[in-house]
Amino acid sequence: MSKYKPEFKAQIVGLYNQGQGVTYLSKTYEITPSLIYRWINDAKENKTVDNFDDEQMVPIAEYNKVKREHEKVKKEIEIWKAALELINKKIKVMISRQHTFCFDYD
Length: 106
Prior knowledge:
InterPro entries: Homeodomain-like_sf, Transposase_8, WH-like_DNA-bd_sf. By secondary structure, the chain is an all-alpha fold.
């Protein structure tokens, strides 16, 4: 089984095709240059690397940033849900107390 996902391989090949050097990519993503060259050749032969359009390519740093933001928003939603649940409970208690102290003066 491959250590790297096809999307990641395609990302690296896409960066190479956009002008990034193999040495730079190797150092930045901690991948051996020979592996990057293999992915490039595989992409040319349409073997293992999925071919994505340039429009579908997103820099990994941007992807990771969006992923972190997504996780943060999910946590915030859970906090808001818990707060709303607590507020609803307090409102129900207030309403029930209000009914117990209502007097009918007819």
